[in-house]
């Protein structure tokens, strides 16, 4: 029932490619289609249609109070559905669009589906930096609402296979354009406030944003668990593998000791590590996730690593931690959510 449309993202004239035309036709008919972006795969639908957007929520099993990001292929389209473009947003669009930065604007009424924006007066918008995504949005000629193409609560998909695992039979098509590059979702930045605020850390770092517009704030709820997050999606459990994940603040010897204790109790133990320590651990499943010295590689591999633990059928997972800066900010944010904030500390 779900069509798999395979497209080589490097071919010329993507906008006349039959698979893209087919996917665009689905979008115009208010059907939903998964497609790759530079961050993760998205599940797209016509952002002007309640019918299409409801299909997205339904396919994902997503709570209806969690608004979607609207994807566009041309900056000019923005004026159709946002009230104003603040100076800060303008500078950031110039620098980072297309790219993994989502900006929140005041919404113009009556253009987009209110279901897509969960009834809010603001709207989140981004222009993805992926030839396939841009061609598809362009050919459809519509603003495209697209959350990550996973079932709610699961790690976001970075390959068409991940999407297939979660959504086969639930969507009209999956456009397979190979693995995504960045691996964690876009940064969500609220530009409606005097001082812009990061609501979700992601592909563009705080440091990179500050280099363009000066000081930005970070939603306190990202570090203080008692505060309620301004981005509705950040309050839900997310990204979690089936087995409980514990992050470990401590040496690798300490981590190996934890693994040994659990194995002794008869449990199957997984460990999430990087190339530097891959050979060190003796566990039932050792997932090597990029190189610690190059955090971008960790981001790229993160969700696939989390998903892989489900295949090895482990009972418990220990994970190394990462520095909370640069793209490490996004990595730690996702890991903390995947772990339900469970941390084991070496005394
Ligand atoms: O990289 C990405 O952003 C991917 C790809 C597919 O583009 N999309 C993505 O969408 O991650 P999703 O739906 O999984 O996450 C969107 C986040 C949620 O946390 C949501 O609550 C927040 O953006 N959001 C959307 N509209 C908002 C608004 N008006 N105000 C505050 N947060 C908003
Ligand atoms: Mg998501």
Automatic annotation (TrEMBL):
Residues 17-204 form the YrdC-like domain. L-threonine binds at residues 39, 71, 126, 146, 186. Its EC number is 2.7.7.87. This is Threonylcarbamoyl-AMP synthase. GO terms for cellular component: cytoplasm. PANTHER family: SUA5, THREONYLCARBAMOYL-AMP SYNTHASE. It is found in: Cytoplasm. ATP binds at residues 62, 66, 122, 148, 156, 200, 239. It comes from Robertmurraya kyonggiensis. Keywords: ATP-binding, Cytoplasm, Nucleotide-binding, Nucleotidyltransferase, Transferase, tRNA processing. GO terms for molecular function: ATP binding; double-stranded RNA binding; L-threonylcarbamoyladenylate synthase; tRNA binding. Required for the formation of a threonylcarbamoyl group on adenosine at position 37 (t(6)A37) in tRNAs that read codons beginning with adenine. Its main location: cytoplasm. The keyword Ion transport does not apply. It catalyses: L-threonine + hydrogencarbonate + ATP = L-threonylcarbamoyladenylate + diphosphate + H2O. Belongs to the SUA5 family. It holds the Pfam family Sua5_yciO_yrdC. GO terms for biological process: regulation of translational fidelity; tRNA processing.
């Amino acid at each position: 029932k779900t069509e798999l449309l395979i497209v080589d993202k490097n071919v010329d004239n993507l906008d006349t490619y039959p698979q893209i035309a087919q996917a665009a036709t689905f979008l115009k008919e208010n059907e939903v289609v998964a497609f790759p972006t530079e961050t993760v795969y998205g599940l797209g639908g016509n952002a002007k249609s309640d019918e299409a957007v409801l299909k997205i929520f339904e396919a994902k099993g997503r709570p209806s109070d969690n608004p979607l990001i609207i994807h566009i292929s041309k900056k000019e389209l923005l004026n159709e559905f946002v009230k104003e473009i603040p100076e800060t947003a303008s500078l950031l669009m110039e620098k980072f669009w297309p790219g993994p930065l989502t900006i929140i604007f005041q919404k113009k009424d009556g253009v987009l589906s209110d279901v897509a924006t969960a009834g809010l007066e603001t709207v989140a918008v981004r222009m993805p930096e992926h030839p396939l995504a841009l061609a598809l949005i362009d050919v459809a000629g519509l603003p495209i609402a697209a959350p990550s193409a996973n079932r709610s609560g699961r790690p976001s998909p970075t390959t068409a296979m991940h999407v297939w695992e979660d959504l086969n039979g639930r969507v009209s098509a999956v456009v397979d354009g190979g693995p995504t590059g960045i691996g964690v979702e876009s940064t969500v930045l609220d530009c409606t406030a005097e001082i812009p605020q990061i609501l979700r850390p992601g592909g563009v770092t705080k440091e990179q944003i500050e280099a363009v517009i000066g000081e930005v704030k970070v939603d306190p709820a990202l570090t203080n668990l008692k505060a309620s997050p301004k981005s509705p999606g950040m309050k839900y459990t997310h990204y979690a593998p089936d087995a409980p994940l514990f992050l470990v603040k401590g040496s690798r010897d300490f981590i190996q000791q934890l693994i040994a204790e659990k194995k002794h109790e008869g449990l199957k133990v997984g460990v999430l590590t990087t190339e530097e320590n891959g050979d060190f651990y003796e566990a039932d499943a050792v997932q090597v996730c990029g190189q610690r010295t190059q955090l971008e590689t960790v981001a790229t591999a993160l969700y696939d690593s989390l998903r892989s633990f489900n295949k090895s059928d482990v009972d418990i997972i220990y994970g190394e931690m990462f520095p909370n800066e640069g793209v490490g900010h996004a990595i730690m944010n996702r890991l903390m959510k995947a772990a339900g904030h469970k941390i084991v500390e070496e005394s």
